[in-house]
Amino acid sequence: MGVVKLEIRCPQTVNGIRLEPDPDWSFDALLSEIDSLEKKLNVSSSVPLPFTKTKSREFFGENGIKRSPSAFVMRISDEEFEDSEGEAEEVHDRGSAKAARFNCDEFYLSGSDDSDNESSLQVETYLMNEVGLVESALVELTHEHQLGVKEEIRSKISSLETDFMNESEKSSSAHAKVDKYREARREVERKFDVQYQRRIAEALDNHLTAIQRDHELKSQIEERKIRSDAAHAEAKRREKALQEERLRQEKAKAEAEMQAKLKAEEAKRVASEAERRAAKEAAEREADKASKANTSEVSQTEALGGPTATSSVVLNAQPKGFDTDKTKNSYSGGNMLRAAESALNLERERLQKLKELDERNQSLRSSSNEDFGSTERHIARLIRQIRGTKDNVRTKASELIKIFSNPRCPQTISIASFAKKVVSHCESPDNAAFACGHVIVLVTSQFPQAMDLLVAELQRACIYTVPKHISYSKSTFESKEAYWKAIGYREDDGKIESTKDYLKRLESYMKLYGALVQTEVAGGQNVHGLKEGWAWLARFLNALPANIYTAVALNAFLQMAGFALFRKYKSQFMKLLNIISENFLNALRAQEDPELRPIMAEIQSYLEDRKFLQEPEGRALQGSLLSSVMVPDSDYQDSYHQPNRYFY
How many CB atoms lie within 10 A of CB 394? Predict the structure, then answer.
């Protein structure tokens, strides 16, 4: 009898899982297939199943004996197949022959007991009908094995479902806890946001309150400062007006006395001449000849203003075309006022313009409700901010020109304020004289009328910018204090300032004047340029005596304008320097005053070291060389080798 082949009728697919027919199918293959199904379930499940296979499946028979997972083995005895004839053959001990593996291509696993019984009955009927008792035993064994496999599968599925439900409950509980925690966090964050916004609002309110308080305090301080400045300016103006009035009265009184004395002296002189005329005709002729000779000599020296006190002035020191000048030395019968007549005439004209401007401004202020104090403060602030750089000078000049062109403020008020603030600023130690000169020239090139007013303010502040000098006379001045006030000393709380402070201010005024006359800018015209500087120096040497005041004024002027004067006038300027060295310095030495030694040393050093060849510090603004703008190098070299280019 050969090997029996079993075929089980079963569906090809179960719950979407296809059973692959395999002629070599075994229980090991079935176990591996179940393991793969478990892995697929674990992968497809959202919650991992806590199931881990620790050992392979084991199968037991009816008697509790462990079965091997290998294929079924059927043993059939050869005795059953011996011939009936009874041939005695030896029983051969054959080895166990392994049966063919069951082919379960259509093996169907159902969870229903009825279906199991039905399929078992069908298989049993088939087997019994086909092969008999042995095959039925084999079917029974197969059925028992199938029941064991089904039971194990059911237990596994039940455990998997239980684990899955537990994990689902745990997941749902975890999701609920997470949602609850998230909602709690949102509530806490919302409370924190409300508290934070409340704190921000409170801090912002406090900050704005503090800012408002600071602004109010600053505005109050500014208002008090403005009122204080206005009161101080008004007090200064009144005090200045009183001083000017007193000075004008003193001058009028002095002029009246002078005229009376001059008339008396003139009468005495006429009487004496009438008495001596007959006896001194010959002497008068000689005197006439001498006066004619002196007149011809004066006509030759009028290039320098015709000095009357100094007879050693160098001839032909004036450039061609320069007007002659006369010197006024008489005041109350003596040499009290020393100045050139043309300089005094120009001073009177400028002071008259300044007076008319002040009167006009006063009428404008009284008739207008507009407050011009802010414009004046703006001008003062711009002048204080002047520095020795090209951009700074152009910026400040442009802003000042805009102020002058502003229709809201009368131009006369702006110009008057500009002149006063410039003169007062030059007294400060940090003033940049050359930079101020550039700003003045740039502004006055657009508004030429402002130059005379500024020079008038400067001459009213310092008489040596005219130039003129007033000598002390007991018959004219009641005391030394009155004399000092006449020449420009300041009085503070009834106390006259010291000579040292006065000389320091005098030097500042002269430095500004010297810087102004030598300044030239591209695209603008200096209406008070080097020609006025040359005239000042000639009038100074012709009319003014040598003392500490004139020495300080001369030294300051040369330090600022000497370089430009030499570049333009060359040998003629050298002649004036020789006059200073031979006459002015010698007159200072003759006084033997120890206070004169420092200023004498400075002037002597300026002449001996030829500092007029060196450009003074600060003259060239940053980014530009003023010397190259004023005189090109080629012209300078040509004129240097031709000393008589401007003269005859």
Answer: 15
- As a whole number of Å, the end-to-end CA separation of the chain is 164
Q: Are 529 and 440 in contact (CB under 8 A)?
A: no
Per-domain residue ranges of the chain: 13-74+95-164, 280-640
Q: In the chain, which residues have pLDDT < 70?
A: 1-26, 43-131, 258-259, 261-262, 264-335, 623-648
CB 98 within 8 A of CB 2: no
Q: Are 440 and 401 in contact (CB under 8 A)?
A: no
* CA angle (19, 21, 26) in 5-degree steps: 90
* Residues recorded for the chain: 648
| pLDDT given at position 510 | 96
What tens digit of pLDDT does each residue of 4-27 get?
444 445 555 555 555 555 445 567
Beta bridge partners of 540: none
What whole-number distance in Å separates Cα of residue 549 and Cα of residue 588? 11
Q: What three-state secondary structure class fits 59?
A: strand
Whether domain 280-640 has CATH 3.40.50.300: the reply is: no
The predicted structure's pLDDT at residue 246: 82
- Measured in degrees and rounded to the nearest 5, phi and psi for residue 495 equal -120, 130
Residue with tokens 């603008």: 524
Backbone angles phi, psi at 103, to 5 degrees: -100, 110
